[in-house]
Amino acid sequence: MTITTTRCLASLSWAIVAATAFSAGARATAQTAPARRAPAPKTGWTVPRTPWGDPDLQGNYTNVYEDGTPLERPDQFAGRKLEDVKGEELASIKRATQQRTIAQFQTGFDAPDHWWQDALFLEKGSQAWLVVDPPDGKIPSATDEAQQRIAARAEARRASGRGPADSYEDRSLYDRCITRGFPTSMMPTIYGNSYRIIQSPGYVAIQMEMIHETRVIPIDAQPRPHVGRRIQLDMGDARGRWEGDTLIVETTNFNPRSVYRNASAETLKLTERFTRMSPDKVRWSVTLEDPATWTRPWTFSLPLTMNDSEPIMQYECHEGNYGLRNMLSATRATEKAAADAETNVTAK
């Protein structure tokens, strides 16, 4: 059985599980939608519940408002706390980011509006940066082991003699429409920043618009053990539980080919927290622990905003997409032009 066939069968298995969760969750959503979408009463608001009693997170969400928000604290805010950058100061920062984003695409090529339309929403962003721990807003230093591992990978790549686009295999998994990995798949990007959360008794499913990957998270009072260490997944192996109104999800068993920020696939653990903060906001935070990569755990956080008026769209991307073919053909054209120029110089 080929690797491609194995991947397809694995994807089909996950799709079947996801469809089961979606179907059950959709029926529950239909029963509770009016109450869940009702405006919050002036006297206060409480987290809605599913028919089986879990906090209700269901809906279509977007993180587009934080597109362009830096992961780490910019140097201009050295010594300041995240919560202190707000009001008009924050609004002016977001407006500047918006204008830079639009200018970038207008300068690089005559881009159709849909490629940078997300920039029109950036001024509504609620944060100046995403890392909330450590307090300095910076990702902790890499361990000696991590530095050696990263250097070894770079040297192996250099020694291979391969260019950045000799073959489709030289392009990223993202370029090849296979995966963005995790947590990258839920972080803001140029477009496709929509997500759908569906719940059913014992499961939460999260579908991403970009590349259409789906995470199916089993929910137990006492989380079941993770799969064996030899099973490695691009999105990791997730296990969830409720703590009050917060969904806690622990994910391990990452695939080395798609692991986040050169972490160790064997030792990386992500702990997510999903908390419904208001009728239209869920706070998503992620704590990354990997003693083989960083000197201490660190956490980033951002809001997901409910956006039921714009459900996630089709994402027609596959390994044979035109973008990938054009990257390779453009590189061949560049190489030919360079070779022709060298020939002309030699002839003279």
Model description:
Strands 1, 2, 3, 4, 5, 6, 7, 8, 9 and 10 form a ten-stranded antiparallel sheet that branches. This protein has helices spanning 3-37, 87-108, 144-160, 322-347, and strands at residues 59-62, 131-133, 194-200, 203-208, 214-218, 237-243, 246-252, 269-278, 281-289, 298-306. Helices cover 29% and strands 19% of the residues.
Characteristic terms for this protein:
single chain; 348 residues; alpha+beta; Lipocalin; ten-stranded antiparallel β-sheet; 4 helices; 29% helix; globular; disordered N terminus
Structure summary:
This protein has 348 residues and is of the alpha+beta class. 29% of the residues lie in helices and 19% in strands. The radius of gyration is 22 Å and the shape is globular.
Radius of gyration: 22 Å
Shape: globular
Quaternary state of this entry equals single chain
Biggest pleated sheet: 10 strands, antiparallel
The first-to-last residue Cα distance is 55 Å
Q: Write down the overall mean pLDDT.
A: 84
The helix/strand order is HEHEHEEEEEEEEH
**Strand runs, count:** 10
**What class, by secondary structure content?**
alpha+beta
Considering DSSP H and I runs of 4 or more, what fraction of the residues is helical? 25-40%
Share in β-strands? 15-25%
What is the CATH level 1 assignment of the domain at 3-35 and 48-64 and 130-317?
Answer: Mainly Beta
At CATH level 2, the architecture of the domain at 3-35 and 48-64 and 130-317 is: Beta Barrel
CATH topology annotation of the domain at 3-35 and 48-64 and 130-317: Lipocalin
Helices, by number, come to 4
Q: How would you name the CATH homologous superfamily of the domain at 3-35 and 48-64 and 130-317?
A: Calycin beta-barrel core domain
